[in-house]
Amino acid sequence: MRNMKKYLPAVALAVALMGCDSTPKYVELESGLKFRKLVKGDTTKAQPTDVMNVVMTHVEGDSVLYDSGSDPGYFVNPSVGLPPNLQEAFLLCSKGDSVQIEMPYTEYATMTGRPVGAADSSKVVTWNIKVREIENEQVVIDRLVGEQLEKDKVKINEYLVNNNLEATETEEGVSVVTLKKGNGKYPASGDKVGVNYVLRLLDGTIIDTSYEELAKENGLYNPNRDYAPYSFTLGNREVIQGWDVAIPNVDQGGKARLLIPSKLGYGSRNTGGPIPPNSVLVFDVEVVELNK
User: Fold this and answer.
1) Domain check: are 108 and 179 in the same one?
2) Which of 115, 190, 221, 231 could form a disulfide with 215 if both were Cys (CB 3.0 to 4.6 A apart)?
3) 139 by DSSP, 3-state: which?
4) Same-domain check for residues 175 and 131
5) Quick one: DSSP state of residue 163?
6) Do 232 and 283 sit in the same domain of this protein?
């Protein structure tokens, strides 16, 4: 269950057939889980390179322990992204199926890290699952990344309009606003560059900076850090892709504002820090060093 957290969130499912006389009986799987198929879809089953998009709830009695949310669905590769007991159950599912999985609460608690009390040994958790899609994982990733890029471009354009800024857009989707021209010498792949920067979110929140005084002013100062231009080799994947794409558009001594879509920043990852998933990044940069 912990491994499942890396996939995207999903939508809730209410199963209407629970009280009907025609509801199929549970069968016990080799893992010990109980499984039944309430609605049969087609015959499309997941291959090792496929992901499922499902919507689900986990229920114990009248309590909803987990509700996967509304959009865009919960994606999981059942061949590698689940513990063995759930893997067995999910691989029995086809596209369009509505199924239920039943397990002891103690087993559920072990998977999810929930506490277990003395009265919990008799409790049962029911998973209500609707399989909406089964598709090749890379196809799904490419589609989701493309959809997010279009959303990010809308946000970037709104930011430019609201702040009365003109930008040039790279082929990859980074918008570059020139704030100050430098000496006309532009970095190229393989060059060693030193860049001062301020990182903000679209709402103006400052996340990080190479300027010591600005860090102090915004409660970001770290006494163990060396506040100086960030040095790296351009095109060597030492920085986020957005920098490798955009810095060649800023000449030595020049300043620019870079609006970087999440695809070229930190993507959909939850970094555990102040940058939410799918965040457009706003960098004010100055190329202060350039060694060809």
Assistant:
1) no
2) 221
3) helix
4) no
5) T
6) yes
Cα(76)–Cα(53) distance, rounded to whole angstroms?
Answer: 7
Backbone angles phi, psi at 187, to 5 degrees: -65, 150
**Residue 83, domain member (yes or no):** yes
* 168 contacts 236 by C-beta, under 8 angstroms: no
Give which of 5, 17, 116, 141 is closest to 60, Cα–Cα: 116
Q: What's the pTM?
A: 0.76
Of 54, 59, 75, nearest to 141 (Cα)? 75
pLDDT tens for each residue of 259-282? 999 999 999 887 778 999 999 999
- State CA 265 to chain mean position distance: 11
Q: Please tell me the distance from the alpha carbon of residue 167 to that of residue 266, in angstroms, as a whole number.
A: 22
Q: Are both 175 and 132 inside the same structural domain?
A: no
Q: Which residue has the tokens 């499912």?
A: 13
Number of domains comprising the chain: 2
Whether residue 107 is found in the same domain as residue 22: yes
Phi/psi at 6 (nearest 5 deg)? -75, -10
Domain span holding position 174? 165-291
On whether the CB atoms of residues 283 and 205 are closer than 8 A, the answer is no
| CB distance 96 to 41 below 8 Å | yes
- How far is Cα 151 from Cα 72, in angstroms, rounded to an integer? 14
Kindly report, residue by residue over 160-204, the tens digit of the pLDDT.
Answer: 999 999 999 999 999 999 999 999 999 999 999 999 999 999 999
- Dihedral (C-alpha) 255, 257, 258, 259: value to the nearest 10 degrees? 180
Question: 115 — phi, psi (to 5°)?
Answer: -70, 155
